[in-house]
Amino acid sequence: MQTNTLKMIVNSKIKKQILMCAPTYFEVTYAINPAMARTLACKIAVNQFKAMEQWTGLKDIYTKEGFDVVLIDPVKGLPDMVFTANCGIVNDGRAIIGEFKHAQRKPETEYFEKWFKENDYGIIHIKEEFEGTGDMLLWKDNIIGGHGVRSGLDGITKVAKFFTFLGRGKDLVPVKLVDDNYYHLDTCFCPMGENALFYPKAFSADSIEVLLEMGAMPINDKDARSMLPNGVYLDNGKGIKFIASKISREWRNALEKLGIEIILNPTSEFQKSGGSNRCLTLFL
Ligand code: ARG
């Protein structure tokens, strides 16, 4: 039996794993999204101590909830490596990795690829633009793929083919992102079991229709700006939880009615770079 097959069996019997990267070198030195541009224009600095505290807060929640958090070493000069969600997507012990859109993040790939190799993952590297689980989320037996800002339609289509090929048999639902402020799917769409939240203004008219038809619940401008969709939905057999950096009373009530417990973990420092809890997380 191959090592990675064995590892998968062992892992699935033990604990679900999450890949994170410590914010040792996290800062905002370039702008590839509007939040970063605002941070630079207003000369707002990242508070390194607070960033480490917020990241550790998230890591501790995962550990407490029964997940096994594994770490990749941060690399000096690659501040966005903390956002592990974007390096690829993992399916059955194989990592599917694409190209980052922006030159500033391209060098991260080499380090993530090395980590996956050293940890016995199979690697499928495609040359199309694809920013991992930032732009691809599974929902109700479908692969929801966001394209138009970072990942390309060709990228998400190719990755979805590998999913089918690898035996998951899920269909791709491509959705088009049209607002640079919501540059990844996980900034404006969040699957929650059978339910999902989404921010309509971030999507094309056709995609809004598709998501509404599938039963996604629209959120307003304020909830979108507070990065509500970048929260993390956890269903680990110990009750359903949602990790949010901030949540309006309205959504807290609505989610609690659905039996979802809210766990708060503020992410002010990472929001200076356009990211929150979900971006700091890669489910393996
Ligand atoms: N500064 C990062 C970027 O623009 C933030 C990435 C956030 N990640 C996410 N999954 N939305 O690429």
Automatic annotation (TrEMBL):
<protein>
    <recommendedName>
        <fullName>Amidinotransferase</fullName>
    </recommendedName>
</protein>
<dbReference type="GO" id="GO:0019546">
    <property type="term" value="P:L-arginine deiminase pathway"/>
</dbReference>
<dbReference type="GO" id="GO:0016990">
    <property type="term" value="F:arginine deiminase activity"/>
</dbReference>
<dbReference type="Pfam" id="PF19420">
    <property type="entry name" value="DDAH_eukar"/>
</dbReference>
